[in-house]
Write a structure and sequence with these properties.
Number of domains: 1
Largest sheet: 7 strands, mixed
Strand content: 35-45%
Helix content: 25-40%
Distance between the termini: 18 Å
Shape: globular
Number of strands: 7
CATH topology: Nuclear Transport Factor 2, Chain: A
CATH class: Alpha Beta
Structural class: alpha+beta
Radius of gyration: 15 Å
């Protein structure tokens, strides 16, 4: 919950051209519930905020150039949840298409057992289902050296 409040404060401070709507707040809250469920090692809670067969894609730089791309279905992601995960985002940006679709984009930091593993940019695609935002898919960068640069945006 503390991260939701920080995200909302960041939206409010972004300037008069950006006003957090109730839909913005709800979309960000869905992503935060996903992070909270990961941290709690709670697969049922992850499933509750996602659509079945959602695809998650990670993009990592590889030494010498290029990228490594991994894709995983949410069901397999849930099976692979590990204790000790903590993901925090800041300065989220929300793009809405009414109450049909939302995209939440934000820099983030991933820690395992309190140690930073990497930072990157998260992009979550959400769909409104039965009045609730659900994660339809996600893509993120996983960059071990990006934390100093991305933390500046806090």
């Amino acid at each position: 919950m503390r991260l939701i409040l920080a995200a909302l404060a960041a939206l409010a401070l972004a300037g008069p051209a950006v006003a957090a709507t109730p839909e913005d707040i709800a979309a960000i809250a869905t992503v935060q519930r996903f992070f909270d469920a990961m941290e709690a090692h709670d697969g049922a809670a992850v499933a509750a905020v996602t659509l079945p067969a959602s695809v998650y894609t990670s993009i990592r730089p590889v030494p010498g150039g290029g990228t490594k791309i991994n894709r995983i279905l949410v069901e397999d992601f849930i099976k692979n949840l590990k204790p000790g995960l903590h993901e925090a985002m800041w300065s989220p940006k929300v793009v809405l298409r009414g109450t049909l679709m939302a995209t939440v984009t934000a820099p983030y930091e991933l820690k395992v057992d309190g140690k930073t593993v990497h930072c990157g940019i998260d992009v979550f695609d959400l769909a409104k289902v039965d009045g609730q935002w659900k994660i339809a898919g996600a893509i993120w960068t996983a960059e071990a050296d990006a934390c100093p640069e991305l933390r500046v945006a806090r």
